[in-house]
Amino acid sequence: MTARLAFGPALAAAIEREEEGALLRGLASTAALWFALADFDMALRKEIRATNCTTGIGAAEGATLAAALDLCAVLELCPQGRKALADLDGKPILQQPEGE
End-to-end CA distance of the chain, in Å? Predict the structure, then answer.
């Protein structure tokens, strides 16, 4: 089986060149791929709960969904990560969390 890449050679090259935000965009793209593999819409990630990872889907899909949720939680900890996720959603960030 051929591995499925979350992003193409242009983003991979940007990460190698250490371009600002490229690594976070790559991680966000990876999360998006994992949501797709689990057959969930990444745009609905804030509505997905842990029970979605264990109820009504296979173990592999549940584990993939849980990993995607965890990766998004890490990305949402910093402004650049939130921007990378928002760029994938196609929606601008409307407000910054308090303290930033």
Answer: 44
